Structures are given as C-alpha cells and as structure tokens.
Amino acid sequence: MSGNTFGQLFAVTNFGESHGPAIGCVIDGCPPGMALSEADIQPDLDRRRPGTSKFVTQRNEPDAVEILSGVYQGLTTGTPICLLIRNTDQRSKDYSNIVQTFRPGHADYTYWHKYGLRDPRGGGRSSARLTAPMVAAGAVAKKWLREKFGTEFRGCMTQIGELAIPFESWEHVPNNPFFAPVADVSALETYMEALRKSGDSCGARLRVSASHMPVGLGQPLFDKLDADIAWAMMGVNAVKGVEIGAGFNSVTDKGSTHGDSLNPKGFRGNKAGGVLGGISTGQDLEVSIAIKPTSSILIPRESIDMNGQSTEVITKGRHDPCVGIRATPIVEAMLALVVIEHALQHRAQCGDVQLALAPIPGALPAD
Q1: Sign of CA dihedral 268, 273, 274, 279
Q2: How many CA atoms lie within 13 A of 161 on its CB side?
Q3: Percentage of residues in the chain with pLDDT exceeding 90?
Q4: Based on the number of CB atoms within 10 Å of its own CB, is 151 exposed (0-12), middle (13-18) or buried (19 or more)?
Q5: pLDDT tens across 232-244, in order?
Q6: 340 vs 65, 113, 243, 334, 344, CA distance in Å?
Q7: pLDDT band at 135 (very low <50, low <70, confident <90, very high)
Q8: Residue 322 to residue 117: CA distance in whole angstroms
Q9: C-beta of residue 305 within 8 angstroms of C-beta of residue 311
Q10: What is the mean pLDDT of residues 79-94?
Q11: CB of 300 within 8 A of CB of 316?
Q12: Which segments within 161-270 are labelled E, that is strand?
C-alpha cells in the first residue's frame, strides 16, 4: 500500500530520506549460497554517487555500503539482506527558504496534499538520493544473474539536451563522466559547462540492455516482462518516457518489415527489444528512457506558497544540471531487478530445466 517495496520474490524495501542519518534497503528472497560482500556492491554505487565530476551535484557522499544481515561466512543465507548507506554531507540549511513554498516540477505540492506535511530537505523521500539503495540491490541481482545465466547489464547515454550522441562502442562508456559511448566528449563538456553557468538544466535519453538472456521469462497477460520493465523504469526519479525495442519508431514501420524474421540461425533483427508476447526471446533486452530536466535550478520561477499566495522560487543548494548523467547505473539496476524477479517466478512455475536451455542460435546480436 505504501509503495516502498519493489518485487515479490526478490523483494526490495527501500528506506530513508535524503537528509536523514542513512538510507538503505532490505532484500527479502535472495537465493542462499551465493558469495556476497560489500566489494560486490560498491563499484556500482561508485558509478552512481555524487561529486564525481563538475557536471553533477557537488554533494560529497562516499556512499559506502554496509551489509548488516543475510550473509554468513561470506554466503547469502536466504534470509533478509539489509544494506545501509550512511548520509554524511547533508546541508539542510540550503532548503530553509522553500519550507513554505512549492518548487515547480518537484513533488512538494503533491506530497503536502497527500500527507499533510512534507520533508523539504533535499526533497526528503522523493529525492533521487533514494536511488542509491536500488543500485545496491541491483548489484546483488546482477551477480546472481551473471553466475546463473551469464546475463550482463550495460547502459549508456544517447542524448543530452539537444545533443544526440552517436553509438561508437561500449568500451568508451566507463571512460567519461557522461556514460557516453563515444571517444570524444568535448562537445558534451562544452554544452554542460554553458548550461551549468546559466543556472538552467536539461534532460537526457538513455539506453540500457541485458545480454545473454534466457528464453521464456515473463507471464501473460498482465505480468509481461516488457510491461514490468516499463513499470520499473517509470518508478525512477525524473523518467517521463520508456521505449522497448523499436518503441515509438514502430508507428512509421510496416508489418512486412517490423516483425523480426527467423531463420535456422536465429532472429534477423531485434525490433521487439528481446520480448515477444511479454516473454523473453533470448535476444538482448533493449530499453530506452527519457529523463526530464532537473527541477532544482537557480532561475526564478513562479509558484505559490502553502497559503495559496503567489511567490517566486529559486532553488539553492547542490544539484545535478542533468540528472540523466548519473542515471545509467540506476536503470541498469532496475532492469536487473525486473529480470531476477521473472527468473525466480519462472523457476517457481517451470523449474530450472527450461531456463538452462541455450537461447536460439544467433539470437544475441553482436553489439
């Protein structure tokens, strides 16, 4: 009812606030016997954490994860795993001027009307800081899926503001602060530097995929794999659009060319994004998301206060001029959480045998 738990068989309950003492999650349903330590989780948190470049918020959080339960002698026990991330660099005074006002584009107005009160410090529960526990949980899911099926998750930025980013190679993604799949990011740096100095913000488009997928994950009719992916992605802060495979480009396609033809070697294309009838084909899952511009900006905007009176809002503090820059590890994690949920559902219904079958030959495109 309260909407803080993601999943049922691999259930992740997220807790904490942006400026509270700590944030974290409890994972209930992780299979037992998997080797797990903080070192398996920390690399993904380091990719998401703030303060890593001048193009993101300068809030300096180490985001060091602590495993408090569910692991004994280095192995998961099958009992709840509690992951804790302590907040160490809050500056709540930055939000003192908005206690009585509603910031345009934020959840202030809706939280206040729903609960009758709100935590204005960094957005409280609605802050993107609460994506860190999901990244931590996603790292656990990734490890299990990698060891079980060889499934790998990767994402990149394909557009920032008005600048489209061509795809060159996955190898470039970890080598720049934008998670961009290109060798030269100088144009992106120039664009973001001008945007940051202006006090404004921009949106972004991201691509995330899962390779070496088993065939058969997903349920008809209302628990389709692609439906759950879209639901998960829309649960990420600032996401306003989701595409699976060809997405909205399907509108201008023809039936004679849209359906992915099959031959004895496998699928000839992947416009379906790795899902047919809500069930995985064994091809790469391909997802694209649209992220809105950061709402916290230095440019004055019209709003109202709690008394309904007209006012002007300037949001001070440390904010990302583009929240999409740090979103790649987040959407990778959410995709992994959907896949592990469906893998455990399939195992419960059909057993391990069918999932262990190799995908259709040629079903995995060489990207």
Answers
A1: negative
A2: 18
A3: 67
A4: buried
A5: 999 999 999 999 9
A6: 21, 36, 20, 10, 6
A7: very high
A8: 28
A9: yes
A10: 82
A11: no
A12: 163-164, 204-211, 239-244, 262-263, 266-267
- Residue 367 is predicted with a pLDDT of 45
The H or E element that residue 15 is part of is: strand 11-16
Give percent of the chain above pLDDT 70. 90
Q: 41: exposed, middle or buried (C-beta count within 10 Å: 0-12, 13-18, 19+)?
A: buried
**DSSP for 246-298, written as a single string:** TGGGGGG--HHHHS--EETTEES--TTTTEETTEE-SSPEEEEEEEPPPS--S
Fold classification of 5-356 is Chorismate synthase, AroC fold (3.60.150)
According to the model, what pLDDT value does residue 65 have?
97
Q: What is the pLDDT of residue 317?
A: 61
- For residue 279 the two structure tokens come to 């069930």
> Is the whole model's pTM more than 0.85, yes or no?
yes
